[in-house]
Amino acid sequence: MLTRDLVIIGGGSAGMAAAIEAKKNGIDDILILEKDSVLGGILNQCIHNGFGLTEFKEELTGPEYLSRFAKQVEELGIEYKLDSLVLNVTKDRIVTYSNAVDGVVTLQAKAIVFATGCYERGPGAIQLAGDRVAGIITAGTAQKYLNIHGFLAGKRIVILGSGDIGLIMARRMTLEGAKVLCVSEIMPYSNGLNRNIAQCLNDYNIPLYLSRSVLRVEGKGRVEKVVLAAVDEKMKFIPGTEMEFECDTLLLSVGLIPYVGLLSDIGTEMSSTRGAKVNDQLETTVPGVFACGNCLHVHDVVDFVTDEGRDAGRGAANYIKGLLKQTKKIKVNPGDGVGYVIPQYIETDLNNDITFKFRVRKPIQNVFVNFKSGDVLVHKVVKPVLIPSEMVMIKINKDKLANLPVDEITVSLEERK
Amino acid sequence: MYDILVIGAGVTGAMISRRLSRYNLKVLLLEKENDVGNVVSNANSAIIHSGYDPLPNSLKAKMNVRGNAMFDQIADELDVHFNRCGSLTVATSDEQLKVLEDLVKRSEANKVPVKLLSEKEVKEMEPNISSEAKGALFAPTAGIIDPFNLVVHAVENACDNGVILKLDEAVVDIKDLKDHFVVKTTKGEYESKIVINAAGLYSDKIAEMIEPIDWKITPRKGEYFVLDHYQVGLVNHTIFPLPSAKGKGVLVSMTSSNNYIVGPSSEPIEDPDDASTDSYTLGEIRRQATELVPSIPFNQVIRVFSGVRPTCTRHDFVIEYAKSNKNFINVGGIESPGLVSSPAIAEYVVDELVSKLINLEEKKDYNPRVKKYNRLNEVSEEVRNKLIKENPDYGKIICSCEKVSLGEIEDLLSRSVPPRTVKAVKKRCRAGFGKCQGGFCSPMVTLLLAKHYGVSPTEIKWDKDHSEILVSEVKK
After folding, report:
1. Burial of A62 (0-12, 13-18, 19+ CB in 10 A)
2. What is chain A's Cα-based Rg?
3. pLDDT at A254 over 70
4. CB-based contacts of A258: which residues, under 8 Å, 6+ apart?
């Protein structure tokens, strides 16, 4: 059987960063498998700017951002295969992929990095009510049609969900001559970045309706009408609050889910993020199998995806070099107000500090973020504002984690009096 | 002049046409939709029922039991995924246990093999069943099938044996000229000696075109959830509650593609074309389903849909000559168990009814088998590589969720009932059937269809009329 030191599944921002970092850490035998016909993944269709503020201290478009990493992949001589989809992975790290040139190839990898990105929740996932007609489309698919293929998917549009792709597409489709009637968000707050609400909605006088969702879609063949209604705290529709919009399109921006069918098939422990649980090296609970980027947890900013990709590439290099020795196993739990925390386990002492990444469940102001092990407060940070749409990252020096009373840490929020 | 004109290319019309295609007859199959099997046959539970449930001696009972016995051969000849997984009708109280005993008697009358299971046996066979389960009726001959390709392949096979299919043609009038009929459609007129009405939800309207009738279609809608095929063994059989006057109740079953299906509801509706879903009904299905299988992971739902049943006021299938002219045969009210009954209905209609009207002379070159499909996920790596060498498009995967190759989609376009819409592609090869529901692959499928048919992508439809996916091109 063919062998590879490192196989990276997915050549988007996470996968390219993982490959580059692994190479810099002494791993030469790397193969990136990318299902699309170019490197860069979803960034290829993100032609708006706002990428790279952390990485490069400048604002780049998606294609500009990805090309800087694609160039490095070329320069470092990292091998990649395009139009190549991974069909199967085993827990012994046997990878099977398919493309038109090589056919179906099975190879043994020493380590695997999953960088497979995420997919959009669609009408089925939110159990959208009404007629099942054309004109109900996810924002990312509409973005691909428009920015890659040059076709507009709607002229009069209602957007459900205030996630970033929906906001970006509100502006983008408006600029192409479509009329965006409103954005409806079921939560009492937006799930998009503040800058996107300002630049994509407010600047174009597109109203944002909070605590409202789609009661039903009506149409024959294609969407003709969308009926919104207000929801109460339990997300139940409130009778008498209906608002009707004559339109041809319902654009959905109702959440992203890690795209990891292959990973859950090999029996990794899965997290509430619907990605895998990982340790401080971003290794899943299957040895030698790593995960990073949006297939681990959905990120708000691509720069952080890149950074996480590097962590996974370094982790995989450490594994291949035999440096990953479990020294302890500390379980990291989300506590009050916290949705999830990555990593879920701390198992090595290879890093000088551990960055904990998490999201809060709802917007909150003026809080302590407490890291507790048993009754001991290990670390405490003050945060003036935390919102669910922004990933929180807090770095803790490993010395603070050295002598914990129990092998667990809980990350929780505490309101400041 | 046609010998026989069949109205409706749902599963009933498809099976009848295929049965007719073995004889030297000139057969025309008319369908109002742009694809075969696109209404009732497209949205149902896809269960090959055992036949214990219909009232003894009813047409439903006879056709169901006979049809069930025919399905191993049908699925083999038509190359359709079929799994005789068996069904469990579960009792959750002592009263319900008594009802199960009545069902055993009904099964015996219908000559359907069943077995009463103890509480312990049910829980061994279905570890995720409700703790309230007290026993069940096990019907080992029940199964699950791919309902989409059952119809597509039956029509393909019929066409390959000489039947002419015309899509997008709705029948608007029929003139009975005694020695033949003139069938007027939205596109033209056809003369035929015999007409078979298999028009599903509109079978009463078609029947009334030649004479008054004493039955009527009262459509009933059923809503469903479809779950991703993320885990094995949520249920291992089709799980039914006890049947009631409204039907067989909300079932939980795996599907022939290893997804899970939960539903249906049963709501009378006015408009036969109403395939909408609503939150209240879905919530009610969810409540009822979790009474049987409490751990259904509803966060794995990838689709909700509804289908409409052509329920008939006669409470049984209508399969008979028209009163005023035997050369007109009505096949109406084919609701559940219509899918399983379809080959038996076809056999009965052709061998018993049509045979008395026209000479049935077997074709010498009749081939009961559908032309071979290359399904890459079902062959060895070696065969797969051989196929990719012959056609590199088999190596390029378009649908990453269901792992469907470009070559397989292209193959569909050269068959006798090629897909014209994105949904027709999805039904045939599962591209767009997975967790992302076509989010990634539907643009590629749309562009591929546009290229194949030589039209702009803005003309490609998702499904029915006026369902174009794109509104305009913004750049050249």
Report:
1. buried
2. 22
3. yes
4. A116, A117, A118, A273, A274, A275, A294, A295, A296, A297, A298
Residues from chain A that touch B269, judged by Cβ atoms under 8 A, are: none
The mean pLDDT value of chain A amounts to 95
pLDDT tens digits along B266-287: 999 999 999 999 989 999 999 9
Q: Which superfamily is assigned to B1-81+146-217+310-372 in CATH?
A: FAD/NAD(P)-binding domain (3.50.50.60)
Structure-block tokens of residue B358:
């026209």
Q: Which residues in chain B have their CB less than 8 angstroms from residue A140's CB?
A: 439
Instruction: Indicate the SS3 state at residue A214.
Output: strand
Q: Residue for token digits 């947890």?
A: A297
Considering only the C-alpha atoms of chain A, give the largest distance between any 2 of them, rounded to a whole number of Å: 66
Q: Find the closest chain B residue to A257 by CA distance.
A: B436
Q: Which residue has the tokens 């929020």?
A: A413
Q: How far apart (Å, rounded) are the C-alpha atoms in residues B385 and B174?
A: 53
- The answer to whether B255 and B225 have CB atoms below 8 angstroms apart is no
Chain A window 357-386: which residues touch B at a Cβ cutoff of 8 Å? Answer: none
- pLDDT tens digits along A154-207: 999 999 999 899 999 999 999 999 999 999 999 999 888 888 999 999 999 999
The question of whether B49 is a catalytic residue gets the answer yes
Mean pLDDT (whole number) for B237-245: 90
Contact A40, A11 (CB under 8 A): yes
Beta bridge partner(s), residue A61: A49
A341 within 8 A of A26, measured Cβ to Cβ: no
Task: Determine whether the interchain pair B474/A151 forms a contact, defined as Cβ–Cβ distance below 8 Å.
Answer: yes
Query: Where do the structural domains in chain B lie, given as residue ranges?
Result: 1-81+146-217+310-372, 87-140+219-306, 376-459
Question: ipTM of this complex > 0.90?
Answer: yes
* In the predicted structure, residue B394 carries a pLDDT above the cut 60: yes
Nearest Cβ partner for B474 among A125, A137, A150: A150
All residues of chain A having their beta carbon less than 8 Å from the beta carbon of residue B440 are: 119, 141
Provide the CA A353 distance to its chain's centre, in angstroms.
Answer: 23
Model pLDDT for residues B319-356, shown as the tens digit of each residue: 999 999 999 999 999 999 999 999 999 999 999 999 99
**Whole-number pLDDT of residue A348:** 84
User: What tokens appear for A285 in the block?
Assistant: 């609970």
> Phi-psi category of B256—alpha, beta or left, where left has phi over 0 and alpha has psi -120 to 50?
alpha
The answer to whether the Cβ–Cβ distance between A130 and B385 falls below 8 Å is no
CATH number of B376-459: 1.10.10
pLDDT tens digit sequence for A355-374: 999 999 999 999 999 999 99
Q: How high is the pLDDT of residue A402?
A: 85
Q: Give dist(CA A282, CA A304) in Å, integer.
A: 14
Q: How far apart are CA B426 and CA B398, in angstroms?
A: 12
**Alpha helices, DSSP H, located in A220-336:** 261-265, 302-320
Question: Quick one: residue A243, left, alpha or beta (phi over 0 = left, psi -120 to 50 = alpha)?
Answer: beta
Does the pLDDT of residue A75 top 70, yes or no?
yes
Q: What's residue B476's pLDDT? A: 57
CATH 3.40.1790.10 fits B87-140+219-306, yes or no: no
Q: What is the mean pLDDT of residues A7-16?
A: 98
Domains within chain A, CATH numbers bracketed? 1-120+257-324 (3.50.50.60), 122-254 (3.50.50.60), 326-417 (2.60.40)
Q: How far is CA B350 from CA A157, A363, B15, B29, B164, in A?
A: 51, 68, 10, 15, 17
What mean pLDDT comes out for the span B461-476? 92
CB contact under 8 A, B397 and A98: yes
Closest CA to B144 of B13, B238, B246: B238
CB atoms within 10 A of CB B73: 11
Backbone φ, ψ for residue A57 (5° rounding) = 55, 35
Name the pTM for this structure. Answer: 0.96
Residue A288 has pLDDT above 80, yes or no: yes
